[in-house]
């Protein structure tokens, strides 16, 4: 009786034995003729080998590891952005609520109406409007882009309207003779607000004006004007805490606190618009 030998396997070939039973191998085996027959007979197991593709598995493992490391490195940054956005929302809420309380207590007339309108317009509506498309915004990050665009237009229309109206009231009171830093910055913000709203209307109707200016360039110009208007408006708000209306009604510590909160809100609210403006400028420069 001949001895049954296993298949010859080279030393550099990686194999795996799955112990499968094949009837074809039993039929070809000469030793199968001497196996017992009958109800107690059982088929003999012979090893079957399958070659492994090590390179494919290694490539798949390394790619998965790279993606996992990339996602793990992104998670702390996203959490930091969410935390800073929540902090910004708290600053915006405190400024809006306190100024509304102060102006409603003294009466919405003259300077009180001016202070309330510019705060609601610039510090609240415009600050929220410029952050709508920001991915780290906890209030709008789950919305679709079309929904974000609609919210953006509504908030900036309300913010620009209220802010421009509030600035116009004070300019009429002063006879357009604005000599203080607060007044001159307010006039600049008023002009930029009108220009930003005009460019925003052109960006909304970009299909009609694309013969004069490309939609991408028009939107980049609109973003720049809107961002400049927002920055100057909040700097104007900062100097507004030094005016007699505010200093006669609040303590020095509260004035410092309001200045700090306004600057923090300005910095944190500017991250998203600056990031979007950078990508638009980069896209425009790549076309030339």
Percent in helix: 55-70%
CATH class: Mainly Alpha
**Backbone CA Rg:** 35 Å
Output the number of helix runs. Answer: 9
- Sketch the major β-sheet: 2 strands, antiparallel
Sketch the topology as an H/E string, one letter per element: EHEHHHHHHHH
**Strand percentage:** under 5%
- Overall number of domains: 1
Low-confidence stretches: 18-36, 52-70
**Average pLDDT taken over every residue:** 77
Per DSSP E runs of 2 or more residues, the count of β-strands stands at 2
Main location: membrane
Cofactor: heme b
EC number: 7.2.1.3
InterPro entries: CYB561D1/2, Cyt_b561/ferric_Rdtase_TM
Topology record:
Blueprint: E1 15-17, H1 23-28, E2 49-51, H2 54-106, H3 111-130, H4 145-173, H5 181-204, H6 206-209, H7 215-240, H8 244-247, H9 252-286
Helix pairs in contact: 2-3, 2-9, 3-4, 3-7, 3-9, 4-5, 5-7, 7-9
